Amino acid sequence: MNSAIEVTGLHKSFGRTHALDGLDLTVARGEVHGFLGPNGAGKSTTIRVLLGLLRADGGEARLLGGDPWRDAVRLHSRLAYVPGDVTLWRNLSGGEVIDLLGRLRGGLDEGRKQELLRRFELDPTKKGRTYSKGNRQKVALVAALASDAELLILDEPTSGLDPLMEEVFRECVTEERDRGRTVLLSSHILSEVEALCDRVSIIRGGRTVETGTLAELRHLTRTSITAELAGPPNGLARLPGVHDLDVRGNRVKLQVDTDQLDAVLRQISESGVRGLNCAPPTLEELFLRHYQSEAVAR
Amino acid sequence: MNDLTGTGTLLRLALRRDRVMIPAWVLPLGLLVIATRTTISGLYPTGAGRAALAASMATNGSLRALYGPVYDTGIGGLTAWRMGSTGPALAGLMALLLVVRHTREEEEAGRLELVGAGAVGRRAPLAASLITGFGASLVLAVFITLGLLAQGAAGALALGLAFGGAGCVFAAVAAVTAQLTETARAARGIAGALLGVGYLLRATGDAAGPGGPGWVGWLSPLGWAERLRPYADERWWVLALFAGSALILVATAHALVARRDLDAGLLPSRPGPQGAGRRLAGVYGLAWRLQRGALYGWAFGYAAAGLVLGAITKGAADLGNGNRTVADEINNLGGTHNLVDSFLAAMISFLGMLAAVYVVQAVLRLRGEESGGRAEPVLATAVGRIRWAAAHLVVATAGSAALLTVGGIALGIGYGATVGDVSGQLPRMAGAGLVQLPAVLFVAASAVLIFGAAPRMAMASWSVASVTLAIGLYGPLLKLSQWALDLSAFAHLPKVPSAPVTAAPLVWLTALAAVLTAAGLVAFRRRDLG
Lengths: 298, 530
Ligand SMILES: Nc1ncnc2c1ncn2[C@@H]1O[C@H](COP(=O)(O)OP(=O)(O)OP(=O)(O)O)[C@@H](O)[C@H]1O
Ligand SMILES: [Mg+2]
Description:
A: alpha/beta, B: mainly alpha, binds adenosine-5'-triphosphate, binds magnesium ion
């Protein structure tokens, strides 16, 4: 039993909307797992199924070795959750909410709470209604991070944080990982995912389209090449992994899958290279590609 | 762009959102007035019969407190008498709910911010919601006027305007309270409390005999509604009181809105504690914390209403045995022979039916927490759904029991003080109050079932409470058939203290409530949250 989360072929519809359409997700124990996808891809829905708040229509979901629907209460004492949209009780102070959620989960570390309050520069005496969006998120974050849960489920936890606080958040998650905790982090912020995550799953339209370590994903990225050649290029179009080929006389522009780079460069150099510009692969480009093809598909 | 830019757009939005809510208030209220007219002409066809009814009313403070004085014994006059005391209060309730809904509630939900960023002046939302509240009140006025036209145009118009005027004043009251507080709940609470005070002032003023404090009725817009005297030589100048006070309140609300920031109220909010106290330790602590404010408010209202109703009870005895009509009237409401006890039973039953309103709002907290996204973080901790729901239901049940006890005790003190028997009346009436609990629990259980099985329709729970209340208040007068009266759980309760306590109905009502609650909770455990 190595995986903290194991989801296969998950289905969930709301009326006519198929929010989840055969989603797979595996999160190993002790890893920080990035969970990405465009708006409406089904990230929050997956998380809410994992929390037993929604009931799946089909597929298999295991959480910490248990069934997220039937064993919800037992499992919840071992995890902490930060919702994407934090709403607080208007007349409870932030400190009260943190303590309350901690007690409901079965205890929280008072020293760690104080430390987190200080690091996140959060005033716990304010009432729920007077917190800004970012500060509401900090309340939920402090409550989650101060717990001794073995699994943290964070749904876009930094969407309201300023860059300084985002930095604090990254430090905290790194510390959590070093303590051996598992983190499922849904996010739209690429740099955050690159900085924190061991592995990533990208979903789209309720389906998993890509999953793997960051290195594996980098492998899926494309390098863009612009070359000035001695003669007209030949045979490039036939090579596997070449995209967006644009030939103008002796000038050639193309994108190439990183794993085909070698073959393509060899082919180019056959025509004699006068000038070469190579843009390194970025994850951003990969993500955008997945996000965009979603827009195209719709 | 001036302060009022965009009022028209917001108004259309409000009317679109209220296309069910406004008719759902206006139609039943208007039809109730028309049905009352029909019933009265059926029950008291002759002038002599109506005169006898009126004569008995004049001597009885208690009935005057409930229904106000009879100014005229025509069919129209008696309709105005019967509807003119509670009807305008209901119109006021409608208007204040509408205005808070479009002002503070929108602001609290953050939707006003979205709207405010568009081409909308800062006073436009207030103006649009006031127009909505005034408009609904005036539509009701027109409806009633048209419905009673056959009884004489002037009286019909006056009664319509009594409703409409009260509606407009409480729309304006709500416009002010919505500026003062930060939450819609508090804005509704303060405006509702003012409505309650207005009702009690009117009742006290009406109950006062010659030389008594009859003038206090003039302090209440609900008293004005009556003193407009529809069908009895209408005093049209009273309309100026409505118009003047509404104008002053509207101006106040507009001045306040110009002075404050979006989202802020004028009543200051203080910082809270660093951390949770020992009592905020679990779901019960949380449910109590969230519900106690409303309960305190209700308890205060129960204490006040109980004392006033108790104090005027003795008047029912002054009636003597000679008057058949009034005796029938009271007995219709409360049961058998002893008129004082019948009256007390009617009042206890009235307090019980109001507790049904309390319990519906307390149960609907569950839905509010759920749809507001505040249930999610709690249910993501080691708290099961049933336990979470049970905590709120225990608070709702205990709260209802507490209200009924407080109401009973206050009634006992109020009545006991007038007959010098507080020690005897207090426990008797407290017990009578608690007898109402099974029916209250039945209404609560219906709400739980709707919440569990059809959460999107949770608001329909209100109709259970209002049907119960309407049947209880108007059923006997409208001579509804028995099966219709039986729709109200309260119809099955023993009419204590005028009738002995019988255990059977209490047991089966409680059992039924338990079954419905269990069914609701099972359905809740099986469904999606959201
Ligand atoms: N309670 C609901 N009722 C109906 N449709 C829903 C409900 N919850 C989610 N959906 C739909 O399911 C789909 C997935 O939504 P979800 O919230 O999981 O997306 P997400 O990936 O979290 O998006 P975002 O990045 O915007 O947070 C969307 O099309 C959404 O409209
Ligand atoms: Mg989401």
